[in-house]
Structure formats: C-alpha cells, structure tokens
Amino acid sequence: MKRMLNKANLKGFTMVEMVITLTIAIIITGIGAIELNVYKEKLILENTVGEIRSAVEQAARVSATSKQTCVIRYFPNAKEIEFVGENYFKSLKIAYPIHVYNLSILRISTTGSMAPHTITISDGRNTRKIKLQMTWGRAINDS
Questions:
Q1: What is the pLDDT of residues 91-100, one digit of tens each?
Q2: Distance CA 94, CA 68 (A)
Q3: Residue 33: exposed, middle, or buried by beta-carbon count in 10 A (0-12, 13-18, 19+)?
Q4: What are the domain boundaries of the chain?
Q5: Residue 3 has pLDDT above 70, yes or no
Q6: What strands, in cross-sheet order, belong to the sheet with 105-108?
Q7: Neighbouring C-beta atoms of residue 16, cutoff 10 Å
C-alpha cells in the first residue's frame, strides 16, 4: 500500500518546466537552421570560385595545346561566362546570389598566357578573388 502512495506522490514536469524546455529546444533548432543557411551560401560561393578558376585554366590549356586564341566573356544579365575559341566553346552558368566583377572580355593567347588580372566574386556577404597570373600558367585564389 505504501508503494502505491509513493508512486501517486511522484510528480512529472510541471507546465512551466515543459514550456521552458520546449522554448529552449525551439531556439536551438532555429539557430541551427540559420547556421545551415550561412554554410550553404558559403558553399555556393566556394564552388563557383572553383568552377571559374578551373574553367579559365582549362581554356588556357586548350589555347596552348591547339594554338588558338580563346576569349572569355561574362554576361551579367544572363549570369553566364562563355569561353570561346576557334574549336572550343564552354558555357558556365553562375548561381543567382553570386555576382562576378572585373570580368567583361579577356583574351588568352595562342601560348595559353594572358595579362595578369583579378576577378572578384561575391554573394553579398562574402567576397573571393581569383588572381589570374596566366603568364605563369596559374589562377590563384585570393581570399
């Protein structure tokens, strides 16, 4: 009989404790969702920088191996970069939140080199730069 009375006197969470616990859980979940969006934006920016750098290096290699001039054009309204050579064409779409600066028309010579140039890529919060030192045959990320 005493055991039954002891069990009856046991208390669970009160309503105030339950509300506080739920509030803390919701706040933690909300912070995680915000951080996930920030991470996603940074990931899109880093991937775009890598794609542009790789495409420029590939166009330089094509120019050097096939002895043809390659032109790089950026179309901001269409959010597209085109790499055009005599027998070479590559199109690179840029994600919506990303903006590319200092890139209108660039020429890569038949030797695969071009004058040094810096391309700036931004998502509004973060900015990355690609230094094109193509006389040395490299495109360098400059954070």
A1: 999 988 899 9
A2: 26
A3: exposed
A4: 14-142
A5: no
A6: 89-93, 80-85, 70-75, 105-108
A7: 8
CA–CA separation, 141 vs 51, rounded Å?
12
Nearest residue to 101 via CA among 125, 119, 84, 86: 119
Backbone angles phi, psi at 116, to 5 degrees: -55, 140
- Over residues 25-62, the pLDDT tens digits come to 999 888 888 888 889 999 999 999 999 999 999 999 99
CATH code of the domain made up of 14-142: 3.55.40.10
Give the integer Cα–Cα distance in Å for 103 and 92. 13
Check residue 113 and report its DSSP letter.
Answer: -
| Residue 82 · residue 90 · CB < 8 Å | yes
